[in-house]
Every structure is written in C-alpha cells, then in structure tokens.
User: Which sequence fits this backbone?
C-alpha cells in the first residue's frame, strides 16, 4: 500500500465540485476573461502545529491560527462564496473537529458519533445547499464513512469495520460518495449512491477510490489497487475497472475530471524509485515533473484547454514538501517555502 511522505499527517487530500468540478468546467477560459485560481492545503508552523491555508492566485490566507494541527483538504466556489473543507485539532477537547470555512469563517460540523475525531475531505455546493464528506471515529474507535447534507451527518457504514469517504458529487439530486471500506477484513474501493453501497473491487487486494465525476449517466471514479506485482492507478467507468498504467511501476490516481468527452486523471507514477507527478489524458500518461525529486498531484481542474494541478514536490534533500501549482505541465507557483513542509490538496479555477 502506498505510504504518504513523512511530512503529511493523516488528514489530507482533496476533491471536485458539482458532479465533477468545483466550478463550471464547460466555460472555456478566455484570454480576455482571466481566471481566479483557488488552492487549499496546509503549511507546517512547527513540528507539531500547522496552518490550514487558502491561496488565491498564489496569495496565501491563513484559515487557522497555527496553534494545533489543521488541514484544508478541498475547495469549492459557488457564486460569490468560497467553501473549504478540512479539520482542526482542538487542544481543549483533544480531538480533530470537522470544519467548513465559508469565506474564511469556520463552522464546526457536528459529529453524530460523539465527541471524537473527524475530518472533511470534500465539499460541493449547489442551489440546494452545501454537501461534504469525510469520516468520523465512533466511541468504539472505528472510522465511519459519512457525508453531511447542509451540516447534518449521514453515516454510510455501520461502524463495525473502518470506512472512509474521500469525495462527493451531486448529479440530478443523486448523491455520489466514493472511498474505501473494510468488508469482511478486506479493504475495498467503494461507491455509495444515495447511501447504497457498490463494491468496486473483489477484495483480493487493497483498493481505494479517491475521486468521482458524474457526466450524464456515466460515473467515473479514480483510485488505485494493489496486486502481487505493483500498485496500479485505476479508473472505474460505471463499475468497470480500467487500469491507467500498463507498466510495472507503482502508480496512483487521486483525482478525475471529464470534459468534452476527454477523461483527465491526476496522481503520480513511481519511476526508478521516484514519484513523478502525472496527468493521464484518456489513459495516456503525461509526466509533469522531471523525476529527480518526489512529486505528487492531489487534485486537478480543467478550464477550456488548460489543465491545472495541485500537489507538492519535495526539496532537494527529500525532507521538505513544497506545495505546488502547475498549469499545462509547467509550474505556476511554489506556494510554501523551505523549511516549512506543505502541500496543496485541492483546487478550483473560475472565470472572473
């Protein structure tokens, strides 16, 4: 199973808005109509504290005070409002609190399972309200995959075995959530549609689904699956498994978008022991880093013909992660600075 670099704590990573984007991806970017790029993530303050952050066009704003561990995992722009999903550790209550920040103002999301840990990994909004997903720990210490409908928690699993919700999309009033669940002792990639579970893998090997995009009647899911030989980036279309890599290299897909009948996935492929940030377009791998330092894509956004990606790249020492934003394979911004570890988990790009 893939292990995240040591500078990333347990709560991280991000998602897409409103079926398969956080904004209207059908609106082409126009040189005369510039875009605003919202990126969220985290930057360490000390070895034991961090800031949840949002960057607008590369300019940072802190969502938290940096006095405990906090994470911003996803961002959604709807109308004039910017929503960020994440969590913050409460030094007073000594647990992680799920949070939504709306235009920088935090709301603690209720935990239906008691005063225990929780996080939000994904957020989307439409004219029916704000929807988020993540997971929370019950009093028995089991993680329960959960989505929130306008702040009201809806558990997706029974709390007997661990389960995690990683991404949410809304299409025609249907609620799609993806993640993974331990079922009879096997960790399986999962899709919940309106609360009804579909297992995407047979459980012979560890698998997880990380991102979902719904276009018309088609449901696209990105994730990865272990095998005896390697870990492999996966796309599921309407439940049918499609490997994204045909090599022996380990590979991981963390995000998915479908625009103008093209399928875009973002993640990384390990080449000669180095994680190379990669965008797959209709299954064809496009590396965007040079393979000299570990780099991962955690989210992608498509506007017109432009592909935006957020994630991180390690410094030359391999000890510090630097939050990055790329456009069409070229670095736009280094969002954090050495010596502070950081990553950019979610991205949303909107026309001004």
Assistant:
């Amino acid at each position: 199973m893939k292990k995240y670099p040591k500078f990333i704590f347990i709560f991280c990573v991000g998602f897409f808005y409103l079926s398969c984007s956080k904004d209207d991806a059908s609106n082409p970017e126009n040189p005369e109509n510039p875009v605003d790029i919202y990126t969220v993530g985290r930057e360490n303050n000390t070895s034991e504290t961090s800031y949840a952050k949002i960057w607008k066009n590369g300019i940072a704003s802190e969502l938290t005070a940096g006095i405990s561990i906090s994470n911003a995992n996803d961002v959604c722009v709807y109308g004039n409002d910017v929503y960020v999903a994440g969590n913050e550790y409460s030094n007073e209550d000594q647990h992680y609190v799920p949070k939504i920040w709306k235009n920088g103002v935090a709301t603690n999301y209720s935990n239906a399972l008691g005063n225990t840990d929780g996080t939000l990994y994904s957020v989307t909004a439409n004219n029916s309200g704000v929807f988020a997903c993540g997971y929370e720990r019950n009093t028995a210490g089991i993680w329960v995959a959960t989505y929130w409908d306008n702040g009201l928690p809806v558990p997706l699993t029974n709390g007997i075995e661990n389960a995690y919700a990683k991404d949410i999309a809304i299409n025609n009033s249907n609620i799609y959530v993806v993640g993974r669940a331990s079922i009879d002792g096997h960790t399986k990639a999962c899709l919940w549609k309106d609360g009804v579970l579909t297992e995407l893998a047979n459980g012979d090997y560890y698998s997880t689904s990380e991102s979902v995009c719904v276009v018309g009647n088609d449901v696209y899911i990105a994730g990865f699956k272990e095998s005896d030989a390697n870990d492999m980036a996966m796309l599921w279309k309407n439940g049918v498994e499609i490997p994204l890599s045909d090599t022996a290299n380990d590979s991981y897909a963390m995000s998915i978008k479908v625009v103008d009948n093209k399928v875009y996935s973002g993640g990384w492929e390990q080449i000669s022991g180095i994680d190379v940030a990669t965008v797959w377009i209709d299954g064809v791998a496009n590396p965007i880093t040079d393979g000299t330092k570990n780099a991962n894509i955690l989210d992608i956004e498509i506007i017109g013909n432009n592909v935006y990606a957020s994630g991180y790249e390690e410094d030359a020492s391999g000890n510090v992660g630097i939050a990055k934003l790329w456009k069409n394979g070229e670095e736009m911004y280094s969002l954090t600075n050495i010596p502070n570890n950081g990553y950019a988990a979610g991205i949303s790009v909107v026309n001004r």
